[in-house]
UniProtKB/TrEMBL annotation:
<dbReference type="InterPro" id="IPR000195">
    <property type="entry name" value="Rab-GAP-TBC_dom"/>
</dbReference>
<feature type="domain" description="Rab-GAP TBC">
    <location>
        <begin position="1"/>
        <end position="47"/>
    </location>
</feature>
<dbReference type="InterPro" id="IPR035969">
    <property type="entry name" value="Rab-GAP_TBC_sf"/>
</dbReference>
<dbReference type="GO" id="GO:0005096">
    <property type="term" value="F:GTPase activator activity"/>
</dbReference>
<protein>
    <submittedName>
        <fullName>USP6 N-terminal-like protein</fullName>
    </submittedName>
</protein>
<dbReference type="InterPro" id="IPR050302">
    <property type="entry name" value="Rab_GAP_TBC_domain"/>
</dbReference>
<dbReference type="GO" id="GO:0031267">
    <property type="term" value="F:small GTPase binding"/>
</dbReference>
<dbReference type="Pfam" id="PF00566">
    <property type="entry name" value="RabGAP-TBC"/>
</dbReference>
Amino acid sequence: MPKLHRHMDSQYVAAPDYTTAWFVKLFLDALPFQLVLRIWDLMLFRGEGTLMALSLVLLKINSRAILRLKEDGIRLHLQALYRQHYNEDDTILEVQGMLGEMVKARLRLPQPVRLQKIAELTQNAKERTADILQQNGTETLSIHVDFSAHDSSPDPELSTYV
């Protein structure tokens, strides 16, 4: 989207001005909640590249409006995307299409974590725990987790011993 890029550059609107909040909050306050949940599902399935693809799709969808706006208007518009109506199915399809375009453009996308990798990590953790126990000369490892210090705990007396 070179025309959009030139316009935003001429208005001194850099990508970090709006994408930082999108990425840090995983679009939670940028889009309607139901769409955010579907994006998160896609991100878990396809990886972090989904965030970049969604950003590009949002710019594409809003390009006409952005091209009519000036510096602060662009920022305000990009902060208020959640007020717009999005067809969830169409948006998800566009994000998937954008992911395909990103692959064709040979952009290096992070790979999603696969269940096999999680199993390997679990096995590695078990082996490291066994090594620690052997080094300490003990047969059990005691871990105390106290949730009572956190306001979000449903039960203030909740604590777990493993």
